[in-house]
Specification:
Blueprint (H helix, E strand, L loop, with lengths): L1 E5 L4 H13 L3 E5 L12 H4 L4 E4 L6 H11 L3 E4 L6 H6 L2 H22 L4 H6 L1 E7 L24 H20 L3 E6 L1 E3 L8 H10 L4 E4 L5 E6 H14 L5 E4 L4 E3 H15 L11 E4 L14 H7 L7 H14 L1 H9 L4 H4 L5
Parallel strand pairs: 1-2, 1-4, 2-3, 4-5, 5-6, 6-10, 7-9, 8-12
Antiparallel strand pairs: 9-11
Helix pairs in contact: 1-9, 3-5, 5-7, 8-10, 8-12, 10-12
Length: 352
Amino acid sequence: MRILLTGGCGFIGSAVVRHIVRSTRHSVLNVDCLTYAASTEAVEEAAGSPSYRFSQTNILDTSDLTALFASFRPDAVMHLAAESHVDRSIDGPGVFVQTNIVGTYSMLEASLQYWRTLDRKERENFRFHHISTDEVFGALGPHDPPFTESTPYDPRSPYSASKASSDSLVRAWYHTFGLPTFITNTTNNYGIWHFPEKLIPLITINAIEGRALPVYGQGNNVRDWLFVEDHAEALVRAVERGRAGETYAIGARQPRSNLRVVQSICGVLDELSPSATGPRETLSQFVADRPGHDFRYEIDPSHAERSLDWTARHTFEQGIHRTVQWYLDNRVWWEKIQARRYDGSRLGSVLP
């Protein structure tokens, strides 16, 4: 397949690019406008492959998108490009509306125009795969069953509202115009090349440097954690096998409270790189909770596991060990981000 993938220099997108180049016979065009959270280093291993191309293009630029479709002629679109950080959406929701809603509209329109030029067989085989989040479903209580594909939408933040909007657009283009779209909703990802404003890389880097480990509230908020390489494999399996009009909820069945995640990171880091000042867990500090902080997300991935013949390969313990080791081995990468004068005080307060 020829896959046009948006956001391929982001955390999840770059993992998909690496998986495609390493493990499949597909070719991929990575379309990314290189925002603050993008990393070209995360796709360096793909750069020399004949199956990889890159275009620095903003998905809001419809003329550039049209030209890319005409020249690359994809068999499928994987739309990952999005603003994704909840705290940033609270501080400035406008960019989330533009990228996540208007950007998805631009991608749908460019895809529809291109799809209409295809012959009958090509149109039948074409897929528009929209990658979304479980946050569109709202929050679960302590004893609620996990989210499924049929859970009603109840977004609580500007970020999740923008993703819920984009999901609705994707479904509308399927039902109204016949564009063969489908959606995957996933839970929290973690792993290598994760930008240091999210919980796991933030805590890992702070712990390496012996700085405070900020935890919202009492650390009781629960997330279902999925190792990013497992997610990348699921997404490629979905674009290969996914059916138009379908939704696939992708998760790892590995819920953890934020406090338990912090404790796990500290334990692994103490094992891999003991500190002279004692266990890192003592660096934990509870901080004021953020507005509208959803209590719990968890996905029942049964439908995706059956339909896509996929299950997560990594336990949380395996994944977190690999992740912490990677941040120990790749200080140069995250120190360069810190050197860009990223606001460290703000960085220390942003958690999922």
